[in-house]
Every structure is written in C-alpha cells, then in structure tokens.
Amino acid sequence: MPVADLPRPDVPRSIAIVRDFVNTTDYETGSDELSTAADLSRYLLAEELVARPVRATSDDLRVAVALRTALRSALELNHDGSVASLPDLESALVDLPVALSWVDGAVAVRPAALGARGALAGVGVAAVQAAADGLWWRLKICASDECEWAYYDHSKNRSRNWCEYGCGNKIKTRAYRARRSIVDR
Which residue positions in the chain have pLDDT lower than 50? Predict the structure, then answer.
C-alpha cells in the first residue's frame, strides 16, 4: 500500500470512505481485501461501516465488487473532468437500499437497511455526499499503471496525477531515460 495518501485529518470522511473502499484492490501486489463474503464482513467492521459484526452473503460480495469496480471507473474519469455516462455505476447503485429523509431543514440520503447491504449503501451515500460537497473531482486513480491507487488530490488546481511523488518520479525518470537513450544513439 502506498504510504503518501494515508488518511489525513483534512480528507473529508465521505472521501476517505470511497477512497478506502476502492483501494481494497491493490493492483501493485495483486491482492484483494474482498475475496470472500467473510472478508467483506471483516472489512465493513474494521472500517466502522457497521457498528457490530455482520454476516455478508455471496450476493453482498457480488454487490460490493460491482460497486468497487464501478467507483474505480468513475474515479479514472476525474483526471480530465469527464462526465461520461457510467452504466456500470448506475447499475451498482440500484442494488443499494437508500432512503430520503428530512434532517435539519434539508433532504438527506441515508442507508435504508442494516447489515452488509446497508453498509454498502453507506459507501454509495458517501459518494453522493462527496459530489454534493463539490469534492468528487478530487478523488482520482493514480496515473501509474503499476499502482492505480485511489487518492485525494490536495493540489489547489486539482492537477495531481499520482498518488504520491514516488509514482510520479518513477514515470518521469523512465521518460527521461527513454529520451536520453534516443539522444545517445
């Protein structure tokens, strides 16, 4: 796991929930924290998305993996500000039980179920909250094909392309060496 974008106090909770959920797949190591329904149950408890242990089903796992994959696809578009249609994300969100309620003089979206499915709805609600707060565009996927870690872009103009300077440095060094090898021929 890259160390540069660990939870920081200035990363809003909604952003951290989505980022951490997407990062349950580590492309660099090839590991997946959500390989089984039991893994999903452990993850939801460890991330405090449920208050007590829950028993996730294989169907809950299917929904979780579909949601994670769709959110990752959406975050990949945030580098160029694209607002393309995302049918996979729309499909994943349909499986989440959410409800509207009136809280403190405003409409609020909240999970409408308990258990694993309700916790996954909480991830969807966090994405909605990030968008409502105008922060969605700061959630991105690292441009390094070796990493592909989800991160929060803290830069003033949202121009960051890598999760940490190490990833960007590797890419820049490779490009420099490639240019030098052409010049040196």
Answer: 1-8
